[in-house]
C-alpha cells in the first residue's frame, strides 16, 4: 500500500460518504484522493464553471453562495463531513453557485473526471453520491422554508448547529457581519439574536468567534428544520 493511499484511508471514517463505501470500492476511490488543508475564504468553485476537483471535507466546511442581484451573496447550502463539495462535477454539469471555504480544516481532494467515470459504473460510489444528492435536495428545500417562515433566532440556532455538526468543533470563527450575510439579514438583527443566546447561556461570543456552550439548549430553541434535515441523513 502506498503512503498516499494509507494516509487517505486514515480519513475514511471522518467523511460520511467515504465511510459508507465497501472496501473494494473505497480502495479504487482512495487511490485517486489526496489529503489537503483548506484555508478559510479559499474559493474552490466559481459559478457557472465545471468543477475540476471534488472535495470530501473531514473537519472543514464549504459554503455555496447565491448572488442576490444587489451585490450580496446568501448561503444556499454548505457541506462538511456529511458530504462532498462539487457534486455537479460528478454529474457532468456546471454549478450556478460559488463555493468558498467557510471553516478552515482538512479534506480529501479528487479529480472530477475520474470520479465522474467511476460514478457512471453504477457501483457503491454511484449509490452513495445519489443518496447524498437526494439529501442535498431535501436540505435546500427545508432551508427555503426555514428562511421564509422562521425567526432569526431559530435560524441562527439551526445554522450554528449545522456548522458545529459538520466540523465537530464547538468553537466557530465567524463575525456577526458574516453570519448576517449568509442568513440574508442585517448585522444589527444578528447582534440582537446572538445577545439573546448568550444571555440564555447557550453561546458565548467575542469579536470573530462564537463558542457553543449548550448544544442541547440550541436544539431546543432551533426550528424543526434542524431536526428534519438531520433525520434524512
Give the gist of this structure:
The chain has about 230 residues and is an alpha+beta fold. About 50% of the residues lie in helices and about 25% in strands.
Secondary structure layout:
Blueprint: H1 3-10, H2 16-19, H3 23-30, E1 33-38, E2 43-45, E3 49-50, E4 53-57, E5 61-67, E6 73-79, H4 87-91, E7 94-95, E8 98-103, E9 105-111, H5 112-119, H6 124-149, H7 152-167, E10 171-172, H8 176-183, H9 187-199, E11 203-206, E12 209-212, H10 215-221, H11 224-231
Helix pairs in contact: 7-10, 8-9
CATH topology of the largest domain: Jelly Rolls
* Alpha-carbon Rg, integer: 18 Å
Average pLDDT confidence is 90
Q: What general outline do the C-alpha atoms trace?
A: globular
Looking at how many chains there are and whether they match, the oligomeric state comes to single chain
The CATH class name of the largest domain reads Mainly Beta
- Strands ordered across the widest β-sheet: 2-8-5-6
Question: Could you name the key traits of this structure?
Answer:
233 residues; alpha+beta; Jelly Rolls; Arc Repressor Mutant, subunit A; 2 domains; 3-stranded antiparallel beta sheet; 11 helices; 12 strands; globular
Amino acid at each position: 500500500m502506498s503512503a498516499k493511499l494509507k494516509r487517505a484511508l486514515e480519513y475514511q471514517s471522518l467523511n460520511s460518504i467515504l465511510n459508507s463505501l465497501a472496501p473494494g470500492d473505497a480502495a479504487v476511490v482512495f487511490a485517486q484522493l489526496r489529503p489537503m488543508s483548506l484555508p478559510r475564504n479559499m474559493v474552490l468553485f466559481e459559478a457557472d464553471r465545471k468543477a475540476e476537483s471534488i472535495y470530501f471535507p473531514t473537519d472543514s466546511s464549504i459554503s455555496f453562495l447565491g448572488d442576490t442581484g444587489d451585490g450580496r451573496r446568501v448561503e444556499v447550502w454548505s457541506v462538511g463531513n456529511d458530504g462532498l463539495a462539487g457534486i455537479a462535477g460528478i454529474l457532468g454539469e456546471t454549478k450556478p453557485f460559488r463555493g468558498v471555504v467557510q471553516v478552515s480544516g482538512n479534506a480529501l481532494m479528487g479529480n472530477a473526471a475520474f470520479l465522474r467515470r467511476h460514478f457512471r459504473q453504477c457501483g457503491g460510489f454511484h449509490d452513495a453520491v445519489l443518496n447524498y444528492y437526494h439529501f442535498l435536495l431535501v436540505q435546500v428545500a427545508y432551508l427555503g422554508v426555514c428562511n421564509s417562515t422562521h425567526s432569526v433566532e431559530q435560524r441562527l440556532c439551526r445554522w450554528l448547529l449545522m456548522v458545529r455538526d459538520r466540523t465537530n468543533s464547538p468553537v466557530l470563527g465567524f463575525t456577526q457581519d458574516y453570519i448576517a450575510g449568509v442568513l440574508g439579514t442585517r448585522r444589527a438583527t444578528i447582534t440582537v439574536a446572538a445577545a439573546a443566546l448568550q444571555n440564555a447561556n447557550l453561546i458565548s461570543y467575542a469579536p470573530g468567534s462564537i463558542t457553543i456552550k449548550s448544544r442541547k439548549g440550541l436544539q431546543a430553541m432551533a426550528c424543526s428544520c434542524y431536526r428534519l434535515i438531520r433525520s434524512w441523513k
